[in-house]
Design a protein that fits this description.
The complex is a heterodimer.
Chain A: H1 4-21, H2 30-49, H3 54-58, H4 62-84, H5 93-109, H6 114-136, H7 141-160, H8 164-167, H9 193-198, H10 202-222, H11 225-235, H12 237-242, H13 247-273, H14 283-296, H15 303-316, H16 331-345, H17 349-362
Chain B: E1 4-13, E2 16-22, E3 25-26, E4 31-35, H1 42-49, E5 57-62, E6 65-66, H2 72-78, E7 80-83, H3 95-108, H4 123-135, H5 151-164, E8 169-173, H6 181-198, E9 201-205, H7 209-215, E10 218-223, E11 226-231, H8 233-237, H9 240-245
Parallel strand pairs in B: 4-9, 4-10, 7-8, 8-9
Antiparallel strand pairs in B: 1-2, 1-3, 1-5, 5-6, 10-11
Helix pairs in contact in B: 3-4, 3-5, 4-5
Classes of the chains: A mainly alpha, B alpha/beta.
């Protein structure tokens, strides 16, 4: 008890400090997490696609590194809903694909600025998440999953034919016109000097900066009252209501926040591919993000990003041949096996395994 | 004016009348116990007051305002808190976070947009949570995961969550159910202490007659959904109808 007043005093100085410099100052270990993330993002494309020996073994390439970050953002936001709030949506393709179409159409008719495209796609996804969340969250559990699936499939159908004059129907949307970043740098062009070796293209740099911002945002949300409320709702929804929290509105916010991340990722996906395939709205896309999240580890910020990396690696590299000639035709099977074995051996996913190893090494409890 | 009033409150499940024209009135600062045999409608009555169930007819007023038509979290925000019969806690959260959740709801309302504000800056919430954990004797275990607590401590945490909501009226649904004699004793002490220090109004649902007679100002006896007797512990002990219907004539 004797140390309690000291702790209270600390809390109060912290508060006035925050009031003066605003909520944007890093708190706790945020600075450390951001720095570590920035370092990983900075060396990832080099290690993956250019580093001697390692990249030969991995067979990685620049464009896949970018794609992994984009899906990573999607999965990170999805886990805020699945892993923290405990809601399984099976319709997140609606936000990913919806944002992709919105950003694509925006680039054709309004502006091809990558930043504005991301904004447009994200705003669309957030508004859509608000609307679909409002309708779907009336029911819990499996009914919620089926409702989200149904809404996403409706969108798939709408863009496949009734709205084909906008979306390009079966052919997907081909009219994407991405302009230079800040009006100066074509995204596919290479970065100057050492940055070229490390990061490669302007596109990667653009995606990496947004990914870093997304990690910062996700980390802050998890350490805001929301993070605690989300976990409380997951743990005991009835009790959360009976301490006086409006569970319904917090759930809707969780849904909208995950829609936001899906929107950012979906917009980047268009910029990356300069094309929106119709399949981006298909239910398999919703399924993929579920698998990535569970594979990487639900209830963690970085697990789903790792899950996205492993998933895309198997899908793109193992399926492609050398050095995986023997298994390449069976890559779907490999993916299934990776998933089953991971979940079987490490129920908390790849990231849960990392945590267990860390706790074992440091002798920490749990 | 009574803090809590029910007026001709009726709840029917199909043909079964679980609550039958109940007129209950709880004054501020009072400790009222509701007793009755199994199936007398005690839990139904609490669930009606906390808005878990909709009444078939009748009215419930808190601080003079009807709460029928409000959501459960709104009733909590008005000042009615409930501790559950089982340890209804947030198992995967720490003990401190369990209390902070309730304190957050009482300090910052049922919903807010503080998704970008770090939890460290919520000093009011931390203070309430710390005080509450201190009051229920769990402060030294604040950083443990709630699921690791022994059962008795989980029940104390359950009461702590209800207290951290800073209620004007606390409904306790069998706070000592499933506890060992020592834990029961500690919980009764806790209830008395809280009563003394916070001046809370209690409505207690309890099976253990010893506890009921010890800590109640007034006792309401329910049978088959109806109030059959009401009075001080001494009056209830001597009431023939209660002896007959509830205590089965056992000499106390």
């Amino acid at each position: 008890m004797s140390d309690e007043p000291a702790a209270a005093a600390d809390g109060e100085t912290g508060s006035s400090f925050a009031d003066t410099v605003g909520i944007w100052m890093p708190r706790g270990d945020e600075l450390r997490v951001m720095t570590a993330t920035a370092v990983v993002l900075a060396v990832f494309p080099f290690v993956f696609s250019r580093m001697p020996v390692v990249s030969d073994l991995l067979q990685g390439y620049q464009s896949l590194a970018t794609l992994i970050l984009i899906w990573g953002i999607f999965a990170l936001g999805f886990d805020l809903l699945l892993g923290y709030t405990g809601l399984l949506s099976f319709g997140h393709a609606a936000f990913w694909g919806g944002a992709a179409y919105a950003a694509g159409v925006f680039s054709q008719h309004v502006s091809g600025s990558p930043i504005l495209m991301v904004l447009a796609g994200t705003v669309f996804a957030v508004l859509l998440a608000w609307f679909l969340g409002f309708l779907s969250l009336r029911r819990g559990g499996i009914y919620f999953a089926i409702l989200t699936l149904a809404f996403a499939q409706m969108m798939f159908y709408m863009s496949s034919s009734p709205l084909a004059f906008i979306t390009g129907g079966e052919n997907g949307f081909t009219g994407v016109e991405t302009a230079e970043l800040f009006g100066l740098f074509p995204l596919e062009s290479e970065l100057p000097l050492v940055l070229e070796t490390l990061l490669g293209t302007w596109l990667y740099a653009f995606v990496a900066v947004i990914a870093l911002l997304c990690v910062a945002l996700g980390y802050r949300i998890l350490h805001s009252p929301y993070g605690m409320v989300f976990r409380a709702i997951r743990e005991n929804e009835q009790r959360a209501e009976f301490v006086g929290l409006n569970v319904w509105r917090y759930r809707l916010m969780s849904f909208i926040i995950s829609g936001f991340f899906a929107g950012v990722a979906g917009s980047l996906f268009v910029i990356h591919g300069t094309y929106v395939p119709l399949s981006s709205l298909y239910w398999t896309t919703s399924g993929e993000v579920v698998i990535m999240t569970v594979l990487g580890g639900t209830g963690s910020l970085f697990g789903p990003v790792v899950g996205a990396g492993v998933y895309l690696y198997v899908e793109n590299i193992v399926s492609g041949g050398h050095p995986f000639e023997f298994v390449a035709p069976f890559w779907h099977l490999i993916l299934g096996l990776v998933f089953v074995v991971t979940i079987w051996v490490f129920p908390r996913g790849i990231w849960g395994f990392f945590r267990d190893v860390r706790d074992y090494v440091t002798g920490g409890e749990d | 004016m009574a803090l809590l009033e029910t007026e001709n409150l009726v709840k029917e499940f199909g043909g079964l009348v679980a609550t039958d024209e109940v007129n209950l009135s709880v004054e501020e600062g009072e400790r009222v116990s509701i007793i009755g045999p199994n199936g007398a409608g005690k839990s139904t009555l609490v669930n009606l007051i906390t808005r878990r169930l909709d009444p078939t007819s009748g009215d419930i007023r808190f601080k003079g305002e009807s709460i029928v038509g409000h959501d459960p979290h709104e009733v909590v925000q008005m000042g009615v808190s409930k501790s559950f019969q089982t340890a209804s806690i947030f198992s995967d959260l720490t003990v401190r976070e369990n209390a902070e959740i309730a304190a957050l709801a009482s300090e910052h309302g049922s919903f807010g947009f503080k998704l970008l504000e770090h939890r460290d800056s919520l000093t009011g919430v931390h203070q309430v949570a710390r005080d509450t954990l201190d009051a229920v004797g769990l402060l030294d275990q604040a950083d443990r995961q709630a699921s690791e607590l022994p059962y008795g401590d989980k029940r104390r945490l359950e009461i702590g969550i209800a207290l951290a909501a800073e209620p004007d009226l606390l409904l306790m649904d069998e706070p000592t159910a499933g506890m060992s004699p020592e834990e029961t004793e500690a919980t009764v002490d806790l209830v008395e202490e809280v009563k003394r220090e916070l001046g809370l109004t209690f409505v207690l649902i309890e099976h253990d007659m010893e506890i009921v007679f010890r800590i109640s100002d007034r006792i309401v006896v329910l049978n088959r959904g109806q109030v059959i007797a009401e009075g001080t512990p001494d009056e209830i002990k001597g009431d023939a109808a209660v002896q007959e219907a509830y205590l089965g004539g056992v000499e106390l």
